[in-house]
Amino acid sequence: MAPAFAVAVAIGLVALYRSARAAITVCVLDVVAGQVSVRRGGLATGIRTEIEDVVARPKIERATLRILRDRGRAVLEVKGVVSAAQRQQLRNVVGSVPLAKLANAPRRRF
Q1: Which domain range does residue 37 map to?
Q2: Is position 87 within any domain?
Q3: What pTM does this model have?
Q4: What is the arithmetic mean of pLDDT over 48-77?
Q5: 3 vs 92: CA distance, rounded Å
Q6: I need a surface site. Which of 9, 27, 52, 60 has the fewest CB within 10 A?
Q7: What's the CA angle centered on 107, arms 34 and 31, to 5 degrees?
């Protein structure tokens, strides 16, 4: 009985974590060979164009960019091999736009 309860609690905690994470996520972008695609959420066209400029020179081979809500601001989370200069440029692009504009962009859901 105890192992089954532990498994059920673990599954519940994972589901809760994923749900909370999805609630604060504005959008998720995949970068492959310098090309940006929206995996989840929405992003204003102008901001996407600026992000595409940053990831194209020098070309980022593979990365995931996640824009999150954090205390009323947009925060960028980067996974993958991205130079420190490009990370800062990406943070500057995301930080230059009010969160309301990012959050109200047309959303893509899967």
Answers
A1: 25-103
A2: yes
A3: 0.76
A4: 91
A5: 48
A6: 9
A7: 15
Alpha helices in 1-83 (DSSP H): 2-24, 45-56
Helices 45-56, 84-95: inter-axial angle, 10-degree rounding: 170
- 3-state DSSP assignment of residue 77: strand
The residue ranges of DSSP E strands in 71-109, in sequence order, are 73-80
> Is the residue at 41 inside a domain?
yes
d(CA 23, CA 82): 26
Tokens describing residue 104:
């109200």
What's the gap between Cα 103 and its chain centre? 12
Say if 2 falls within a structural domain.
Answer: no
Residue 47 lies in a domain: yes
pLDDT in tens, 69-107: 888 888 999 999 999 999 999 999 998 888 877 766 666
Q: For residue 81, give every residue at least 6 positions away whose Cβ sits within 8 Å of its Cβ, in sequence order, or none.
A: 60, 61, 62, 63
- Single-letter code of the amino acid located at 58: P
- As for how many domains the chain has, the answer is 1
CB-based contact 26:102 (threshold 8 Å): yes
